[in-house]
């Protein structure tokens, strides 16, 4: 399956590939190697775009006692940090880096109510940059379960990611494992947990959105 966010981009790339191949055949027939190089390059570009916007079906098993991964990618940070925007206290931060090879649909990590949502304009530093969490374009979302456990997470644009999709409003109902947004062309998701939360992943782990467990839900 292809994610709906990719339809327009794919259409543009298809037209571009068709034009490149037409021009290559028309004007470069005497330069076979160059004609072939352009054709293969344009087809590889189409392949990259198609795989980037893939949206595989997943069977999500809801579990109120765990926090599921909101994204596909690699765990790059697990540390105690100060969260100044919403909680305004110390939290455990878990960051997931999404490469261009990962599925880029984002999923609700827990079920509950959206208690906070903000979209921030910003820069496009590399997602691995320490300050990208507060300087880059990003959305900040907090969700609280019926039992009062609350987490916050951010979709962060990277050097290539130029559009964050998150049609979310405060008061919305989050359904664990269901898609809520998309980030185009590589970036990062940061999660913020209460101190003492049992984190179930390690730095370097590969995770899949809606399938892998990031942490246990704190029991109130």
Summarize the structure.
The protein is of the alpha+beta class and 220 residues long.
Written description of the protein model:
This protein is 21% helix and 33% strand. It contains three helices and 13 strands. The protein has helices at residues 7-27, 32-52, 132-135; strands spanning 66-68, 73-83, 89-98, 105-107, 112-120, 138-144, 150-157, 164-165, 173-174, 179-183, 187-193, 206-207, 213-216. The strands form three sheets. The chain has an eight-stranded antiparallel sheet with strand order 9-5-6-7-11-3-2-12. Strands 4-10-8 form a three-stranded antiparallel sheet, with no helix packed on it. Helix 1 (7-27) runs antiparallel to helix 2 (32-52). The relative contact order is 0.21.
CATH superfamily of the largest domain: Glucose Permease (Domain IIA)
CATH topology of the largest domain: Glucose Permease (Domain IIA)
For the largest beta-sheet, the strand count, sense and barrel status come to:
8 strands, antiparallel
Strands of the biggest beta sheet: in what spatial order? 9-5-6-7-11-3-2-12
Amount of helix: 10-25%
Order of helices and strands: HHEEEEEHEEEEEEEE
Question: What separation lies between the terminal Cα atoms?
Answer: 40 Å
Q: Please give the domain count.
A: 2
Task: Report low-confidence residues grouped into runs of 5 or more.
Answer: none
Just give the CATH class of the largest domain: Mainly Beta
Provide the structure class: alpha+beta
The total of beta strands comes to 13
Task: Using the 3D structure, state the CATH architecture of the largest domain.
Answer: Distorted Sandwich
Shape: elongated
